[in-house]
Design a protein that fits this description.
204 residues, alpha+beta, five-stranded mixed β-sheet, 53% helix
Length: 204
């Protein structure tokens, strides 16, 4: 018997019934960090260590990320009632660097509703928003609450970091621990600003 494939809008609506706020996601990550576990079907020491690191990162970035006055004005003037739905997992380093920025946007404008779902519990939706054929996270889906239309998507990392990763992969075939360290240094220097620039494009 043939089953009708669900539309992307239907999958989004289904996923929203399981979605949580960023604040609840922070609590979830902290709980896993304290309990020696992580989100997702596979629980390992490495993934837990990343989860612990990400909890500390988000805690720091929530306090330190700054948005320029120009950026704040653009965000505040946005009138579409929009949901930003992010697919992630607790161990994802790029998500820990960028989700605090997304929350800052939502804090400034009640028209942006920021929600979080776990990738591995929503693979059908994830597979509609693959990046270069992979289930890379975080993946932000922006959609209009009234028309249910997808307005755009973003991820898995800021545009400058994406270029760094792609260039390195082209030259070396895969990412090394040394490169991941360099990427971390880049994130620390950037302080979320490239993510701010990218997300402002989603509002245009």
């Amino acid at each position: 018997m043939e089953t009708m494939q669900k539309t992307t809008a239907q999958l989004i609506q289904e996923s929203l019934t399981k979605a949580i706020s960023y604040q609840d996601y922070r609590v979830l990550t902290e709980t896993h960090a304290l309990e020696g576990t992580n989100t997702g079907p596979e629980v390992t020491e490495a993934l837990h260590n990343y989860t612990m690191l990400n909890h500390k990162r988000m805690k720091r970035l929530d306090k330190t990320i700054k948005l320029s006055e120009d950026a704040q004005n653009v965000i505040k003037q946005y009138h579409n009632k929009t949901t930003w739905l992010v697919l992630t997992e607790s161990w994802c380093g790029d998500a820990a660097q960028t989700m605090p920025v997304m929350q800052k946007f939502a804090d400034l404008n009640p028209n942006i509703d920021f929600k979080v779902i776990l990738r591995d519990e929503n693979l059908e939706l994830m597979d509609r928003f693959l990046y270069n054929g992979g289930r890379s996270i975080p993946r932000l889906i922006a959609f209009d609450n009234e028309t249910q239309e997808v307005l755009g998507d973003w991820g898995p990392r800021p545009s400058q970091a994406t270029k760094m990763v792609n260039d390195y992969k082209d030259a070396h075939g895969k990412l090394t621990p040394e490169f991941k360290q360099d990427l971390q240094v880049w994130y620390n220097k950037d302080k979320g600003q490239n993510t701010v620039e990218d997300l402002l494009h989603l509002l245009k």
